[in-house]
Amino acid sequence: MKTYLHIIFIILSILTSAGVPAGGVYQEPDEFIDQVFANEPPKPEVLWLSKELKKQMADILDHNYTGLRIRYWQQHKEAERKSVWILEEIGKEKPITAGLVINNGQIELVKILVFRESRGWEVRHDFFTDQFKQARLQANHQLDNNVDNISGATLSVRAVKKLARIALLLDQQIQKKQSE
Amino acid sequence: MTNRKTKRFTAFLWHRRIGLLALALVIILAITGIMLNHTERLKLDESFVNTPWLLSWYGIEPKDEPVSYRIKNEADSHVLSAWQNQLFFDDKTITNLDQNMHGAIAAEQFIVIALDNEIILLSYEGEFIERLSTGISFSNIQRLGMKYKRPVIETSEPLYYMADEHILDWDVITNDGVEWAEPYTLNEDERERLLVAYRGNGLKLERVILDLHSGRIFGQYGVYVMDAAAFALLWLSFSGLWVWSSRRRKMRKKKHYQKHHRNKP
């Protein structure tokens, strides 16, 4: 009898776990900012988007960016120039929210914070996001490293890649402005 | 009655039955077909349908009333409205919404709009500037107000937060001296203009005629109903031909027919 109960329990566990959607809020953007800056986040700043920058963003996103400014958080510590961006891009139908940390023009961290689609949530795993580490933006606005696709999550992968390129582009802009 | 007579009678009977059954659909097919052949002359692609039940049938008649707030900045006055998951600046569509609107104010530099868990910033020309998620720092916005020309938010706790002039950072404050945004009731003219904006250019008459012709206006099975009407037309053609030819054959056998048509080639 006990064995049967065990079997039924295992079957029920498998069935119910298969039906649970893997999307959702993995980490609140505020928590992500706190975590990156060890609970002492700097005040947010904004980058106003020029026409030229919006055009470059549109080329990366394959659609116009809606909005005239983007907020970011940055910290300069000795040789470290770190900026943090919370960006969104639609995978298939709904936006994926990602937190991106750029350090000295290289990606330090990519984290999927909110995933609203029903498919493609595999992009939240470290095995995928770790591929972006140390990536830089080339002159043609492509990443200088290769990021492998995930079968069944192509659109989500594409969206995260775009966000990585956008974050690097925006970081370049603020560094350029600050050096002027 | 002979077998041959029964056959002829059956064909005639079904010719009549199917003809009567398909009558309405064939009339629709014929009239809409003629209209579509002359789309440009009849200006079907330039005419718009404003019949509420038809717009509702197409899903472009709003089901509820808009939520509006009027803002004043110096000489300018604008109305911000949320209607059917869309945000409007006067009668211009700005963006899609998936949350309720709790207020709009004219702050020092921007127009600030509060949703359940989001803040939208617009310029005074109605340009979309930024959409901020309020996250965990404060959520469940109940009201939006203004103090020193800066936005103030009331949350469900209730707690009160005031933003800096650039709307970048929020500080907890007391609720003294806050001027809360009050919903605004649109007058008939404003509502009508908003309705036009909601519908976009509206529903083209050509679309309705096309959908009537194809049957799509009656839903997913409407196409099959029109297919049946087309098959009925085919049947009517063949059964009509059959009835006519069998009558002709019968007539030819009659004596008076032979008498009158004998000399004709």
Structure description:
- The complex is a heterodimer of chains A (180) and B (265).
- Chain A has 180 residues and is α+β, with helices and mostly antiparallel strands.
- Chain A has one domain (23-179).
- Helices cover 37% and strands 25% of the residues of chain A.
- In chain A, strands 1-6-5-4-3-2 form a 6-stranded antiparallel sheet, with helices on both faces.
- In chain A, a hairpin with a 2-residue loop joins strand 5 (95-103) and strand 6.
- In chain A, helix 3 (51-61) packs antiparallel against helix 5.
- The longest helix of chain A is centred in the last third of the chain and has 26 residues, at 154-179.
- Chain A is globular and about 75 Å long.
- Mean pLDDT of chain A is 87; it is low at 14-20.
- Chain B is of the alpha+beta class.
- Chain B folds into 2 domains: 3-55 and 204-261, no CATH class; 61-199, YVTN repeat-like/Quinoprotein amine dehydrogenase (Methylamine Dehydrogenase, Chain H, 7 Propeller).
- Chain B is 40% helix and 28% strand.
- The mean pLDDT of chain B is 85.
- Chains A and B meet through helix 2 and strand 3 of A and strand 9 of B.
Short description, anyone?
The complex is a heterodimer of chains A (180) and B (265). Chain A has helices at residues 2-19, 29-36, 51-61, 126-129, 154-179; strands at 24-25, 45-48, 69-77, 80-90, 95-103, 106-115. Chain A has 180 residues and is of the alpha+beta class.
